[in-house]
Amino acid sequence: MEYKEEILEKCLPKYLEEDLKKLKEGIENNVSYIDCLINELQGSVNSAFIDGDITEEQCDYLYEKYIRMEK
User: Fold this and answer.
1) Which of 19, 24, 33, 42 is 20 to 30 A away from residue 12, measured at CA?
2) Model-wide pTM > 0.85
3) Span of 6-15, 39-48, 53-62 with lowest mean pLDDT
4) CA–CA distance, 65 with 56 (Å, rounded to integer)
5) What angle do the packed helices 14-28 and 34-50 form, to 10 degrees?
6) Other beta carbons less than 10 A from residue 57's beta carbon
7) Are 8 and 57 in contact (CB under 8 A)?
8) Within 10 Å of residue 6's Cβ, how many Cβ atoms?
9) pLDDT-derived band of residue 3, with 50, 70 and 90 as boundaries?
10) How many CB atoms lie within 10 A of CB 18?
11) What is the mean pLDDT of residues 11-21?
C-alpha cells in the first residue's frame, strides 16, 4: 500500500509526535536502544488509535514504516 507521508505524519497527538521524533533521531544516530524507542512508539500509536486521535490509515502507515520498518 502506498502512503502519503506528508499527510499521514501530520496532526498527530503531541506525545506521538515526540515518540516519532525520538525514534527518527535514534535511527539517524544509530543508537543501541532502538528497540526501546520502537516499543515506546508502538505504545503511543496504539493509544492514539484506540482513543480515536489517529485514523486506521495513519496507524497502519506508522506500523509499516516505523514499527515493522517495512518501507
Assistant:
1) 33
2) yes
3) 6-15
4) 14
5) 160
6) 13
7) yes
8) 7
9) low
10) 14
11) 97
